[in-house]
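tool_call predict_complex ligand=KG4
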Amino acid sequence: MTENERPFLTLGLESSCDDTAVALLEGPRQVRAELLSSQIADHAPFGGVIPEFAARKHLEAFLPLTAEALRRGGVTDPRREISLIAVTAGPGLMGSLLVGVLAAKALALSWSVPLIGVNHLEGHIFANVVSFPELVPPFLSLIVSGGHTEIVLAESFGKYVFLGGTRDDAAGEAYDKVAKVLGLPYPGGPEIDRLAAAGDPFAFDFPVPMKGSPEIVFSFSGLKTSVITEIRRREQRGEPLPVEDICASFQRAVVDSLMGKLGLAVKKTGIRDISISGGVAANSSLRSALSKRRGWNAWLPPVNRCTDNAVMIAGAGFSAFSRGHRSGLDLAADPSWQIW
Ligand code: KG4
Ligand code: ZN
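tool_result ok
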């Protein structure tokens, strides 16, 4: 095989929060290797991510994970076989980002391979693009995770318009905080989702955030407080805690809010292709509501590509590189990097 016939391999690196992830992508979407080292068990005793601890864990995990990804992907000579290194450069936790960016720069320098810094949110959008070749802009993207709740219009790859976001807690953050008060393990989203399946979504009339507002704006802090107040009230009176019903009713309010604001975005733009991504996109109730919605094309990534992963970073990096973008060895980490 000549140099020109060699497959284009992107090494994707992600460490913006509490997962260290490495992936090897061939071309735009063929996954050769995908590895993830989760820190959930390390942070669980604290009920949330401890930033400095996360950075130290990334430092331990990065190079062994990269070596294993190369091995599984059949790469024996990365200098010759790796075509591009794509790394999350923001937004995220500064210490965590620094570890990934520095690792990527060191590998790019020692292998003489081009480097590209990827925006984590664009990465989440690419979780769908990598999974579905038919998904092309324009489309709407709901990014809904532990740190984000945003509706974005993808006009073209690399060109995004912010349509609306949360004014306080992110949806995943509200899930995690309610779960903590219920005594459920971290992260709370999957636990609440599981328990909600056995509960009555109308048992409690928790408020649907920003329901009456004609603006595309989310707010989950009031809902979270209503749920926590109900839990405390019952505890003080010694009343039983119908955990499943509380989970189901909370989840109904969150999903109604997300669906309502997506409805406004569809109305505003006339676009009916809706992609969702981020950890909360794994939610069974949200997925079901979107799939059932008539007149919309729902693009739902596989559950393991909703939460943070490196395949999405490699995919976004490959796309940006194909459009002529490059980063230098002076690439900086930007904890609040916006894509719009
Ligand atoms: O995208 P992600 O892995 O990390 C961030 O960038 O934040 O998202 C993690 C968030 C957590 O808040 C977690 O509780 C939530 O996604 N999550 C869920 C579900 N699975 C994960 N929330 C609701 N339902 C789920 N099934
Ligand atoms: Zn994320």
